[in-house]
Design a protein that fits this description.
The chain is mostly helical. The protein contains 18 helices and 6 strands. Bound molecules: carboxymethyl coenzyme *A.
């Protein structure tokens, strides 16, 4: 393998260094390209652009591989907990028993919200989307906790405070949206159990904790915990690169995640399946619409920028979905609609030719419905899961001595110079 790539422009050769990652991925280093050649690259959507060197998550889209800090997602989903996986992502190694205990203790210590924050919630219109509320509230956290972050702490106060409070904030948003009293966390519950408790307990019908659902929530959040340089993570890094505080960077990530092409797809999938059910649409109808180039409709929960095979997270999600529904004896007709649609799409030449497979969002909504999570909260569930990844990526960026402010260039296609025309001559 050559150490350089050769670029020929107007008969002149330029040698560009090639960087090789630990898994063999090759990148042409163009950092000096404009300085030496006067040219820039053009890559809308950044499908061919590496924006950083990272040691957090590895994906192989052709083989359907996902690993956090080297550990396969399948092993983490089977053996780890969300809290342990969060530690792994943020620090780069699995915690020993003492560190894990300290992490859990700190998550418990930080789980209350400042009571003044409740006034913020009460002033959002009742129909406000919880993702908009969450993004605003995370940004607002900065005014309550303005202290500097110690980036060297492994059991990191600031990071754990965010991870703990965002979970409480999400549950409070739900309770307030229903007009119910908020429920405080319990010190004897784990991170995931506490979320279900804060969401669903109430004074007249106490919530019966089901370990099956707690386990499912652990897996759900592990599957969402990081996914290298996706849209929201890139947003966190880009915004963070201006050296803004972490709360503002995470708030930008939450906003980016909200979109239906990204994390908002889990809500959009369920709405699509419900629409099929209500209007008696067959999979063939929906697939025809997705194939139609004149129609902006996309088959929600299908396709991925990186995966050109079955998303490994979707495989685990589907298995978990079957298990949870069976164990809880829930018969969700939307699961049948989803399975029929998946089969039809996987056998359709359009989807086969373009390598479009189910992604993590295709089955995740059915699992969330089984837990009792309302559709409007689905993307919030994704956001809570993605927090450790965003934090790990923000930290990696903050510690990288070579990192610069993110500032892409453009190819200008507008008017060339022309004179200002006074109003009476236009
Ligand atoms: N339905 C119909 N056609 C599709 C779909 C789909 N779901 N996804 C991609 N295509 C087509 C696309 O129109 C394009 O066609 P052509 O080559 O004729 O222009 C071709 O497949 C290649 O796709 P692309 O748009 O270049 O792919 P992308 O990498 O820019 O977009 C995506 C990736 C995820 C935004 C897209 O597949 C999509 O919109 N999927 C539906 C929304 C969704 O499920 N999003 C969740 C993604 S996974 C979780 C997450 O990231 O949060």
């Amino acid at each position: 393998m050559s150490e350089f790539a050769t670029l020929l422009i107007d008969g002149k050769e330029y040698k560009l260094p090639v960087i090789v990652g630990t898994e063999g991925e090759k990148a042409i280093d163009i950092r000096k390209l404009r300085q030496e050649t006067g040219h820039i690259t053009f890559d809308p959507g950044f499908g061919n652009t590496g924006s950083c060197q990272s040691a957090i998550t590895f994906m192989d889209g052709e083989k359907g591989i996902l690993r956090y800090r080297g550990i396969p997602i399948e092993q983490l989903a089977e053996k780890s907990t969300f809290v342990e996986t969060a530690y792994l992502l943020m620090n780069g190694y699995l915690p020993d028993r003492e560190s894990l205990t300290r992490t859990s203790v700190m998550l418990n210590d930080f789980s209350l919200l400042h009571e003044d924050m409740k006034f913020f919630y009460q002033n959002f219109p009742s129909k406000a989307h919880p993702m908009g509320i969450l993004s605003a509230m995370v940004n607002a956290l900065r005014s309550f906790y303005p202290e500097l972050i110690d980036l060297d702490e492994d059991v990191n106060r600031t990071f754990l405070r965010i991870i703990s409070k965002v979970r409480t904030m999400a549950a409070v948003a739900y309770k307030i949206s229903r007009g119910h009293a908020t429920v405080y966390p319990r010190p004897d519950y784990s991170y995931c159990a506490n979320f279900l408790h804060m969401m669903f307990d109430n004074p007249v019908i106490p919530y019966r904790m089901d370990q099956e659902l707690v386990d499912a929530l652990n897996v759900f959040w592990i599957l969402h915990a990081d996914h290298e340089q996706n849209c929201s993570t890139a947003a966190v890094r880009v915004v963070g690169s201006g050296k803004v505080n972490i709360y503002a960077a995470l708030s930008a990530g939450i906003s980016a995640l909200w979109g239906p092409l990204h994390g908002g797809a889990n809500q959009a999938v369920i709405q699509m399946l419900e629409g099929m059910q209500q209007n008696n649409l067959t999979p063939a109808h929906v697939i025809e619409k997705a194939r139609d180039k004149t129609d902006p409709f996309k088959l929600m929960g299908f396709g991925h920028r990186v995966y050109k095979t079955y998303d490994p997270r979707a495989k685990i999600m589907k298995t978990m979905c079957d298990k949870v529904l069976k164990k809880l004896q829930i018969n969700d007709p939307l699961l049948d609609v989803a399975m029929e649609l998946e089969e039809a799409a996987l056998n359709d030449s359009y989807f086969q030719d373009k390598n479009l497979y189910p992604n993590v969002d295709f089955y995740s909504g059915i699992v969330l419905r089984a837990m009792g999570i309302p559709t409007k909260m689905f993307t919030v569930m994704f956001a809570i899961g993605r927090l450790p990844g965003w934090i790990a990526q923000w930290r990696e960026d903050a510690l990288d001595p070579n990192q610069k402010i993110s500032r892409p260039r453009q190819v200008y296609m507008g008017e060339t110079i022309r004179d200002y025309i006074p109003m009476d001559k236009r």
